[in-house]
Amino acid sequence: METIPFGLTALTLAVVVPATLLGRRAARLLRQPGIVGEIMACLLAGGLLASALGPWPHDVEGWQLLETVGHLGLALFLVKAVHEIRGGGAERQLGRPLLWTVAGSALLPMACGALFALWVLHSGDPALQGEAPAGVLVLMLAISLAVTAVPVLAGILEDRDLQHTPTGRLAMAVAVTIDAVTWGLLAVAVASRGGRMTPYAVFVAGLLLSWAVRRAASTGAARAWAGRVSPAVPVAVTAAVAAGTALGTARLGLTDVLGAAMVALALPADGEDGVWTRAARTVGNWGRAVLPLLFTVTGVGLGAAPLGTFSGVAVLLAMVLALVGKLIGSYLGAWLGGRPRRARLQLAALLNARGLTEIAVLQVGYQAGILAPALYFALVVMALVTTALSGPLLWAIDRYVPAATAAGTPPSTRTGGETRGRHLNPW
Questions:
Q1: How many CA atoms lie within 13 A of 343 on its CB side?
Q2: Residue 360 sits in a domain of what CATH number?
């Protein structure tokens, strides 16, 4: 019995690297963000492993270690992602365009997510419903359809030279605002899963502690200390505290990634070249390198589930509602915010990219027992498809919508940068 899990563990590690490289290569050939091909290839590799080797015990030490390392990789990656969201990877924009676009890009997708949850609850399919309370499932699916991937969006904007245009800055500000709200709602959903007060107390205490640590780290004495020590020290401190907090919050009723998010909130926003920003970026890159292992391990778990648990109707409905919610909601919000037609279309296409942020949110729901395997699979497919569509949608807008309607857009950007087609690489 010991040799089977050890063999599967070793084989899982052996297929991670080639699956990752092949996935990135395929994405590059299809002019897609590398993460899309990487996730698909690793999930597929894990599913094939499970199909070929059959069932295995999940309580063995080797397999538990792989799962733990994969989840810690996701937690470390989110230190960087959440720090960028809070610290301001985008310019702060106030006023009508931001407020209306945020409202449209968040509220209609959340309503579509709630509608999807009602369909799941009334489907009578236990493979989709799982065991989560109805209210928690509704909130989880509302969050899932509202997310926009800030890292992927930043890569798309940079690839098309849109990051310094009014449309690009507005898109990033909207994405940052929405994701900041959805991560808070996600913590509430996870805390509500068990129906106990302990997770709420841990969450509130964590937020208060994060605020206190950030205030202390922003003092002159703390900044002077950070400037004197070796750059490796803040990196080591951030990584160790993030890993320890992630494991601790998981044991206390919250998921490990929410613990890492609290660490990211505790880091001061000290500018693009600041000590703590560089530490968060380094730690996040370490976690990013481990994520293929998590995707492969998740693929093994999905592949071991009965084939009948995967619902084509759920996959199709998730994609349709996700596209309707984001594209129409973002367009209407930008219209109410006074944006011209071309900018409205560009914002809708950009904010439809969900990428790895969506996968992280779904992984939290799956790990917390809110999302059943069939529902998790449907939403992962939705996340990959909507992200992959951003490039073709922007290409169609560049080709068929007159650039002259984008008031305020520099001519050099309208005629050159927006139509360039380099590979979208958000990493």
A1: 25
A2: 1.20.1530
